[in-house]
């Protein structure tokens, strides 16, 4: 199943061109708010698995797609989760997931214009998991049962603020400017993938591919990340988890490759789709 935020209304994708408006099709059993469905996830999946009425079909305007999880209570992110990325950063491989957060106000949709703050803004393509069932003390073996689906995201980062201080103290701030957590274009349930632990992700800056990998190369898989996070914090339905970026980030290059005004960033995930953003000075 592929879930859309279509002009602020929850929809189920049919074929990429048409979708079913959930509130209309369910006669109000589920509301139009795309984020509220996560609190009814089990009930919704059962309903959506039946015959959806064609009378509730709407045309998909891809320019009107919003974030499939627009108001998470928590946004977690994992750093150094690919071996080559840790090596390019000159850091040792982590023994446990290296976790930081992005503020929920940074979440935005899969297209449009993002404001560039002063400093050095970098790209980081990532596979993103959205929680569908409350998770506390969940084992690796049970973790996928708590994931509603997968989407693609960018962990955009202003490196100067991120690394400011006598020791890097500002990860959360440098990664949480408005628009710095774009996700989309759809949420795809794990059963849609041949292997949800092996998905190709990539991004291109101004038409030149800058990052590409398969998520099977992650040091910590999504189930391991969920186990670790839920051993400390309760994960709530609709929470968002950025799972780490591969090598090729702009800050690690010589010379550095950073996002500038009018640049275009295209982000792609196999079986999910693509995001397209441009940038302007804040």
Automatic annotation (TrEMBL):
<dbReference type="GO" id="GO:0016787">
    <property type="term" value="F:hydrolase activity"/>
</dbReference>
<dbReference type="InterPro" id="IPR011234">
    <property type="entry name" value="Fumarylacetoacetase-like_C"/>
</dbReference>
<protein>
    <submittedName>
        <fullName>Fumarylacetoacetate hydrolase family protein</fullName>
    </submittedName>
</protein>
<comment type="similarity">
    <text>Belongs to the FAH family.</text>
</comment>
<feature type="domain" description="Fumarylacetoacetase-like C-terminal">
    <location>
        <begin position="75"/>
        <end position="279"/>
    </location>
</feature>
<dbReference type="InterPro" id="IPR051121">
    <property type="entry name" value="FAH"/>
</dbReference>
<dbReference type="Pfam" id="PF01557">
    <property type="entry name" value="FAA_hydrolase"/>
</dbReference>
<keyword id="KW-0378">Hydrolase</keyword>
<dbReference type="InterPro" id="IPR036663">
    <property type="entry name" value="Fumarylacetoacetase_C_sf"/>
</dbReference>
<keyword id="KW-0479">Metal-binding</keyword>
């Amino acid at each position: 199943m592929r879930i859309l935020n279509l002009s602020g209304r929850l929809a189920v994708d049919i074929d990429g061109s048409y979708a079913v408006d959930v509130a209309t099709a369910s006669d109000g059993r589920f509301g139009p708010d795309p984020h509220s469905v996560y609190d009814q996830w089990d009930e919704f999946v059962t309903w959506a698995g039946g015959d959806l009425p064609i009378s509730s079909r709407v045309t998909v305007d891809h320019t009107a797609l919003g974030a499939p999880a627009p108001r998470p209570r928590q946004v977690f992110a994992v750093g150094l989760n690919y071996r080559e990325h840790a090596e390019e950063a000159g850091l040792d491989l982590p023994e446990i997931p290296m976790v930081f957060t992005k503020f929920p106000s940074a979440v935005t949709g899969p297209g449009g214009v993002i404001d560039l703050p002063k400093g050095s803004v970098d790209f980081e393509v990532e596979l993103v998991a959205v929680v569908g069932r409350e998770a506390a003390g969940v084992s690796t073996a049970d973790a996928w049962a708590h994931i509603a689906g997968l989407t693609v995201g960018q962990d955009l980062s202003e490196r100067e603020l991120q690394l400011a201080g006598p020791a890097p103290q500002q990860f959360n701030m440098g990664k949480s400017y408005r628009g710095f957590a774009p996700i989309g274009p759809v949420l795809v349930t794990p059963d849609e993938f041949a292997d949800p632990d092996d998905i190709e992700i990539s991004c291109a800056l101004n038409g030149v591919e800058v990052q590409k990998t398969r998520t099977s190369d992650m040091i910590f898989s999504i189930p391991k990340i969920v186990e670790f996070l839920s051993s400390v914090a309760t994960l709530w339905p609709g929470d968002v988890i950025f799972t780490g970026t591969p090598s090729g980030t702009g800050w690690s290059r010589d010379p550095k490759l950073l996002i500038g005004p009018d640049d275009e960033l295209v982000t792609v995930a196999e079986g999910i789709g693509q995001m397209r953003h441009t940038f302007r000075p804040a």
